[in-house]
Amino acid sequence: MKKYVKMTILLLVLVISATNLMAQGVVEKPVVKVLVLDMFEVGANKGDFAGEFQNYYETYFDGAESYTLNSMPLTLYINDDGVAGCIAGMGKAQASSTLTAILSDPRFDFSQTYILVSGCSGMPPQRGTLGDVVWANELVDFELGHAWTESDIAPGTSATFLRSEGYDRAGYIKLNASLSQWAYETTKDVVLVDDPKAAAYRANYGAAEALETPAVRMGVSVTGDSYWHGEHSSLHADEVCAAYGAGTYMVTQMEDSAFGVAAMNYGLLDRLLVCRDVVNFDQPYPGQTVLESLSASSGAFSMGMKNGFLVGSKVIDSLVANWDSYGTTIPSVK
């Protein structure tokens, strides 16, 4: 009898264990529809002076589930609609390691995830203005390749960059043209905010484009780990873009190429969207030094944070609202 009872108990334990394992096996992972990546926040995630993440946090992630990533000092938020967000950090190393940590986490389903990079940038005054929001269609790395300064070459020689094909995979990345165009068409009529201080600062520049009011645009995004500044640095960026056969650069920042490589590594490059708001010109105005320009307040920071969110959130909402279609079929302009 005792032997029978023991066998019965053992059988019950095995059945319960098997049931638990089966239950664990059918638990569905959270499906991440859109992953929003911002680079920094100024203070708290809500209720104070807003950096890149705050507007997204207050709209999508206040009260959402939060997760720690692979023992890294990162928090990933995921709401009930499948929108996720994280402060990725600044610079290429932070960007690539953060996105890699997120996409390698087995707790979540990223198989159909759209990645939205939304952050601030600089722009040449001849190509747009403070408060603009630019959808990237190509990513160019400012540093990858062979480079030198004009002082190291013969007088009359202008080239300062030589493309190296060994770096091409990361040096020049074409985004999904159809998706980028769809994002632009979806948001081109968004009414952007302006600021009197930014308007006054624009007036220091002679280019007609610099004097315009904020608009949604599209173009090349140049990534550099250094926060470079100045007319000659801008010309160097043009030279690097030309070496790759890329278009004319519109914005400069410190992370996009790294996000592109990480997305490529996980098979999600065709779902990567890069949205950059313009908070400064990448060179001084006539009569202003580079250091004066770097330390000057253009009046565009808060305006840029707002405009970037207005544009980025419209794409997020469209992707989520049409998930039955966009989950499997990447949107394009019809």
Automatic annotation (TrEMBL):
What GO MF terms are annotated? Answer: catalytic activity
Q: Which Pfam families match?
A: NUP
Keyword tags:
Signal
Where is the secretion signal located?
A: 1-23
| Gene Ontology BP term (one) | transmembrane transport
- Does GTP-binding appear among the keywords? no
Q: Does the keyword Signal apply?
A: yes
The record's annotation in InterPro entries points to: Nucleoside_phosphorylase_sf, Pur_nuclsid_perm
Name the domain of life.
Bacteria
Alphabetical list of Gene3D superfamilies matching this protein: Nucleoside phosphorylase domain
Q: What is this protein called?
A: Purine nucleoside permease
Q: Which organism is it from?
A: Sphaerochaeta pleomorpha (strain ATCC BAA-1885 / DSM 22778 / Grapes)
